[in-house]
Write a structure and sequence with these properties.
- By secondary structure, the protein is α/β, with parallel strands linked by helices.
- The chain has a single domain, classed as Rossmann fold (3-Layer(aba) Sandwich).
- Helix content is 43%, strand content 16%.
- The chain contains 7 helices and 7 strands; from the N terminus they run H-H-H-E-H-E-H-E-E-H-E-H-E-E.
- Strand 6 and strand 7 form a beta hairpin.
- Helix 1 packs across helix 3 and helix 2 runs antiparallel to helix 5.
Length: 209
């Protein structure tokens, strides 16, 4: 009963806040997103996939914020998600947009195993490839866009990540510290403040010719 109530709180929060993010979620997608939420909650005590948060915070900060990249992904696009962790932003995007394909890179073995199981249980395994490697160990990100929501020592790793991304576009989540690191790197970008947040941004780096 408790899991049922928590799932309902998550679904209620998704539906209540989707308009704020300019997103309209089909009912089937809402149910799959709730399935993902339950999978994360099931494995979180052991794997520490996300920090402690309420169902509403999970819906807003993890899921709806992840879905803000959809407006920058063209129909049929492929993307590489670096440091996927619990599956953000990749899994919500693949659930909502069936035209997308994603490569999920996660260097920690147990989290990578979780992702492999999750994409199968969520029915998106044909469009999702999980790599248990450091991003720098993969010679060519075979995707049109590179995205990243969280990496250890993100600002210090940033120059390497941008070189690895090459001329592909990049969609990076972060705060003022990441903005300063991008400027210090001489990277041109635009930014979008996340709804319901005062300091979390999506930084958009256009594809180079």
């Amino acid at each position: 009963m408790k899991l049922f109530l928590v799932r309902n709180e998550f679904i209620t929060a998704l539906k209540a806040n989707q308009d704020t993010f300019g997103i309209e979620l089909p009912e089937a997608a809402v149910e799959r997103l709730a399935d993902h939420y339950e999978l994360v909650q099931e494995h979180n005590p052991l794997l520490h996939l996300v920090g402690p948060c309420s169902p509403e915070e999970f819906a807003v900060r993890h899921v709806l914020e992840s879905l803000t990249i959809l407006e920058f992904l063209l129909p049929g696009a492929s993307f590489t998600d670096v440091g996927t962790g619990a599956g953000f932003p990749a899994i919500p995007c693949l659930i909502v947009r069936k035209d997308l394909r994603g490569v999920l890179i996660e260097s920690k073995e147990k989290k990578s195993a979780f992702l492999t199981d999750a994409v199968q249980r969520l029915g998106i395994e044909e469009r999702a490839t999980v790599w248990n490697k450091q991003f720098s160990e993969i010679p060519d990100p075979a995707a049109s866009v590179v995205c990243c929501r969280a990496l250890d020592k993100f600002t210090s790793v940033l120059p390497k990540l941008l070189r690895w991304a090459g001329k592909r576009g990049s969609l990076l989540f972060g705060g003022p510290g990441l903005r300063e690191a991008l400027r210090a790197n001489g990277t041109l970008f635009t930014e979008k403040l996340m709804p319901l947040s005062g300091q979390r941004y999506l930084f958009i780096i256009e594809k180079s010719n």
